[in-house]
Amino acid sequence: MHLIRWALLLCGFWLLLSGFIQPLLLSFGVISVALVIITLKRMDAADSEPKRISIGSRIIFYCFWLLGQIVLSAIQVTKLIWGGSHRLSPTIARIPIKQVTHKNRVLYANSITLTPGTLSVDLQDNEVVVHALQQSSIDELQQGDMEKMITGRRS
After folding, report:
1. Does a structural domain hold residue 40?
2. 3-state secondary structure (DSSP) of residue 144
3. 3-class SS at 76?
4. What is the number of structural domains in the chain?
5. Rounded CA gap, 85 and 82, in Å?
6. Is 143 exposed, middle or buried, given 0-12, 13-18 or 19+ CB atoms closer than 10 A?
7. pTM, 2 dp
8. Domain shared by 80 and 109, yes or no
9. What pLDDT was estimated at residue 49?
10. Angle of helix 23-43 versus helix 2-18 axis, rounded to 10
11. 118 inside domain
12. Which residues cross the membrane (predicted)?
């Protein structure tokens, strides 16, 4: 039953995006949807895929907080770049992961990468390797504010 719902949803989405109703193009859409449904069935992803990440209802608050951090970092990076290359001090550091659960480590690493001026280079069990345009970005990550926001511990 869930595959039928997926097929109807995908057909509607394809039709909405394409806007074409000529027979040839509709047949391409049906073939595309059929291939996706076959792949979905083979992967058994419709039933076993996790429905949400474990930070639950805090995800909305976290997204707004992260968006604010992205804007602030973008302003900081712009000032840094316009200030001249003498202000840049590229740094690579290992940031220990203390509180983030195993499931949310990818969210943590991706959040670091989304923030301008920082890039997650490698994610290991107890740490994430981060490249930053300046040492102050590394220092902020080591303070653990982002980690606390993911875990819900804002103290």
Report:
1. yes
2. coil
3. helix
4. 2
5. 8
6. exposed
7. 0.62
8. yes
9. 53
10. 140
11. yes
12. 6-38, 59-82
Angle at CA of residue 19, ends 14 and 23, nearest 5°:
85
Note down the domain range covering 25.
2-48
CATH code for position 130: 3.30.70
Do 79 and 134 sit in the same domain of this protein? yes
Tell me how far apart the alpha carbons of residues 95 and 112 are, in angstroms, rounded to a whole number: 11
Render each residue's pLDDT in the chain as its tens digit; 155 residues.
Answer: 678 888 888 888 888 888 888 989 889 989 999 998 888 887 765 455 555 545 567 778 888 999 999 999 999 999 888 887 777 889 999 999 888 887 788 888 999 999 999 999 999 888 999 999 989 889 999 998 888 888 876 65
53 falls within a domain: no
Same domain, 135 and 70: yes
Cα atoms found within 13 Å of the Cα of residue 97, Cβ hemisphere only: 23
Does 24 reside within a domain?
Answer: yes
